[in-house]
Amino acid sequence: MVFSRMYTKVYILKSVGWDDLYELGFGVHQWNITYDRLAALISKEGKGLAALWGPTMFFTKLSLLLLYYRIFAPDRMTKNLVILGIIYCFVLYTSYLLLTFLLCQSQIIPYCKHQWNLFLLTTSGLNVFGDFYLLAIPLAAIAKLHMPFREKLGVSAIFFTGLL
Prior knowledge:
By secondary structure, the chain is mostly helical. Helix content is 76%, strand content 0%.
């Protein structure tokens, strides 16, 4: 899938953007991982696997934000919202990585051992906020377009597929 997308971008469209550089398409698709396999992987790898989640989420969201930056380039407000989103994601996932990997894995502070669920709940809440923020950026730009409401609704529906 990634190969065909990159082939189309490079050879047919002849237009590769920054967002394309962050598309990583390797490994097993999450749809094909069974619950038993995932549970075994998590119990075996523990919090070390959780340390990989932060950078993965950061580069995934960075890819979308850079795509928005390219698509909505003429709109100054949208560009500022994208830059704010990049800063938010960088701070969130860098702090997540530092707390998970450097502090919790090395047992420098015992807080991580006893408050891991609270840490995950807080991180999850901030991640969900970031997801909705990511969804709201194109909707704000679409609302300003000069087109009939029905067409705006259709274009917005494309971005609402992100809720699925």
